[in-house]
Design goal:
Blueprint: H1 22-35, H2 41-48, H3 51-61, H4 65-84, H5 97-115, H6 119-134, H7 141-155, H8 164-180, H9 187-200, H10 222-241, H11 246-262, H12 266-282, H13 286-303, H14 306-322, H15 326-342, H16 346-362, H17 366-381, H18 383-395, H19 400-412, H20 419-447, H21 452-464, H22 473-476, H23 489-516, H24 520-558
Helix pairs in contact: 3-4, 3-5, 4-5, 5-6, 6-7, 6-8, 7-8, 8-9, 8-10, 9-10, 10-11, 11-12, 12-13, 12-14, 13-14, 14-15, 14-16, 15-16, 16-17, 16-20, 17-18, 17-20, 18-19, 21-24, 23-24
The chain binds zinc ion.
Length: 559
């Protein structure tokens, strides 16, 4: 009865086992035995104890006592670092067998070179370990730092090359600090790099050495590479203090310029010069800032650096704006935008448009400002957005060619969205649009000329969006000397009195009617209610009129 529809399942047959004869079993056993790894004493230990302990013992047994001690110290330090680490980022070496094997091999090679009194090669082995672990993620940077310091210590004993090897190790360490700890104070790197530079002045020490004949290495010298890193540190420092102390920032930028010249890097030189100009602009030293930016512009022009040209034009426009030359400023920004569009630099185009918008806003042309800012917004936000809102934002405007130009630009370029910039443009656009409304509002007030009623209607429209086409009684009580209304305050008073009289007459008529009715009490109550209603109506009107009058007077003064 339980499951009428279901058939009983077919019983499964047992699987047939492969036929096992005595010889086949023998073969299987032998194969398994031969396949087993041969374990020596070390192998057995490695199966029983953690790898780091085994490696420390193995190193000692093989005669690498210093490596063994060093590894033990490393593990000890690592355990402490892991314990202090609250965010769980530090790599626990005990869990990383691949790292342990790699470190052990490197340390052995270094100790071998040490035993041969080959200090330079020993130093290079340690430096290679450092450079390797510098690229293995944040959790292992502590290890890289230890190897860097070890390599510097070893290189300090090797002075036959005049200090080149020591300089190289220190250079790599300083660069490691700058690259891997970008937010940290660059002072330590600065001190190290200055030492290296001092020792390398006038020397043609190569930074890299070929490992064999066929190895090709970059031709950088220690002096040039150090100068470049110093340029970087100096500019970072300058930018950090520019707001508080632009004078000091300018001096640091000048030093950075000299270092860039040492390194014979024109692009970096121009970068430092631009920074000098920004500091001068911050100190309101406009004529010098102008000269400085022009100097940077010449360099970018000579090397045809488009991004640099855009940037210096932007700074030059800022100087021109401060000098009050809005026309030149607008021209520079337009050139910047055109250049950026030509070369598909979306960010630069967006900035040019944004700055043009701000400039127009400052020159009290909010209608132009709003348009440029909306274009800047679209430019920052990118093609996908632009495609949807193109019709809404730009399509209605006459700038069809601009739309086509933007279209081309977005299609060819990456789809990165500059969120912060686009947000700024959007905000400015809103402000500009608001300014535009205010302008049209004041224009209307101006249009109203002498007609007080028209002005009042405009004010009411602005304040409470009241339609000016709606007739209101309160407007009849406004004194207005225009030819259409032509009523003096006295006329208004007369009108008010007339209204009052007619109201009184109505009331009197009402009370005559009351007398005809018998239920006097109720009628009196009713009349009381009516009159108080009328009074409050009057009072309300009076208050409203006074408020509007106040606004009117306030706005006529501000005009
Ligand atoms: Zn009027």
């Amino acid at each position: 009865m339980t499951s009428e529809g279901a058939f009983p399942k077919r019983r499964q047959l047992p699987k047939l086992m492969a036929c096992m004869t005595k010889t086949s079993l023998e073969n299987l056993r032998n194969k398994a035995l031969f396949g087993l790894n041969v374990l020596d004493a070390k192998g057995i230990r490695r199966r029983k104890f953690p790898l780091h302990e085994c490696i420390i013992l193995e190193l000692k047994e093989a005669g690498y006592t210093e490596s063994s001690d060093y590894l033990q110290d490393l593990i000890y330090d690592n355990i402490q670092l892991v314990e202090e680490d609250d965010i769980g980022i530090v790599v626990d070496l005990r869990t990383r067998n691949d790292y342990l094997e790699h470190i052990s091999a490197g340390l052995q090679r270094a100790e071998k070179e040490r035993d041969r009194d080959n200090t330079k090669k020993e130093c290079l082995e340690l430096l290679n370990l450092a450079l390797h672990y510098a690229e293995q993620g944040k959790g292992i940077l502590w290890l890289a730092e230890k190897f860097f310091l070890a390599s510097i210590a070893v290189s300090s004993q090797y002075l036959i090359d005049g200090g080149r090897q020591k300089g190289c190790c220190k250079y790599h360490y300083a660069k490691f600090l700058l690259d891997k700890f970008p937010g940290a104070d660059p002072e330590e790197s600065f001190v190290i790099l200055t030492e290296v530079r001092d020792s390398a002045i006038g020397k043609t020490w190569p930074l890299y050495e070929p490992k064999d004949e066929h190895d090709v290495v970059p031709p950088d010298t220690v002096f040039q590479a150090t100068a470049l890193q110093l340029h970087r540190v100096l500019l970072t420092k300058a930018r950090a203090i520019r707001k508080e102390d632009p004078g000091k920032a300018e001096r640091l930028s000048r030093l950075a310029e000299r270092r860039a010249r040492d390194a014979e890097e024109t692009g970096k030189t121009a970068e430092a010069i631009t920074e000098i100009g920004i500091c001068q602009l911050a100190m309101n030293n406009l004529s010098n800032a102008l000269k400085t930016f022009e100097r940077a512009f010449q360099i970018h022009n000579a090397t045809n650096n488009i991004e640099g040209l855009c940037e210096t034009r932007m700074h030059l426009a800022a100087v021109m704006q401060r000098l009050g030359d809005h026309e030149s400023s607008a021209n520079l920004l337009t050139e910047m935008g055109a250049l950026a569009m030509e070369h598909g630099l979306r960010r630069q185009l967006g900035r040019a448009l944004h700055l043009l918008g701000e400039l127009h806003l400052r020159r009290e042309k909010p209608e132009l400002g709003t348009q440029h800012l909306s274009e800047a917004f679209v430019c920052f936000i990118g093609y996908e957005f632009q495609k949807q809102s193109q019709i809404k934002l730009l399509g209605t405007k006459e700038n069809k060619s601009v739309v086509d130009g933007l279209d081309m630009l977005y299609k060819t370029k990456d789809k990165e969205i500059y969120l912060e910039e686009s947000e700024q443009s959007r905000l400015m656009m809103a402000i500009s649009a608001g300014q535009e409304l205010m302008a049209s509002y004041f224009n209307l007030l101006r249009e109203a000329k002498h007609c007080t009623v028209a002005k009042m209607k405009t004010i009411e429209w602005k304040l409470s969006h009241a339609g000016w086409w709606i007739k209101k009684k309160s407007h009849d009580l406004l004194p207005c000397l225009c030819p259409i209304h032509n009523r003096t305050p006295l006329d208004v008073l007369r009108i008010q009195l007339e209204i009052k009289e007619s109201l009184d007459r109505m009331r009197a008529e009402c009370s005559e009617g009351d007398a005809l009715l018998e239920r006097t009490d109720t009628i009196q109550d009713l009349r009381h209610i009516t009159s108080s209603f009328n009074q409050s109506l009057h009072l309300g009107k009076y208050i409203k009129n006074s408020i509007l009058l106040f606004y009117f007077i306030y706005y006529s003064y501000s005009l």
